[in-house]
């Protein structure tokens, strides 16, 4: 072993010491996950944050949902009330806030472009956030696939062509759906026009992933011959892009000792999470066997 490495080894061995850190218990914060797509009703999920070392199981997750909140969405002229509903998956129950169907005259779907204000009263506190469903500054032109060889197996790589509008400040996020699976975002699910402004460009698109799975159990970024793939491409505003950009980075850096700390940039003052608008375009392709 070189002298330098021996000295470094001895130095760290001599300085080894058990360190016990007493982390204070944080007060739970409201966590907001709200989205509003063009042509659809808004959906809002409210939970309480958990401590870093909390043991996660279905019972803990179920208890984290926030009930009996007052939730409204306004477009500037009309205001609709969202009511709490339960979705039972069999494994656990999810609680979501959706438009009150008993007041259909007040309900409205998202439009392009549109500006929408979310107001929440929960835990004796008031929260407010504004998002936009933006114009299609990034236009999804086409999708196609190419065959690649991965570990002696034939796979398919998905490609897209996008045309960006001349003005700077366009942002996007994508999801993929494989056969009958749900729509899943990519590990790096957002794109912006900082380097491609006003151009037509082609980029490869990784298959979306279920981030609840252990990384070793996830499929790779490719698709299989015979798959029917639907790409969901969304134009989003900068605040929504900032949230998912920082969350994707934090998730992908988890466990990396050389990564820098990342602050998740939400857009709901006083709470964690985001209220985001999506201008959605779908394209489907069948990968030949």
From TrEMBL:
Domain of life: Bacteria
InterPro entries named in the record: DUF4249 (IPR025345)
Protein name from the UniProt record: DUF4249 domain-containing protein
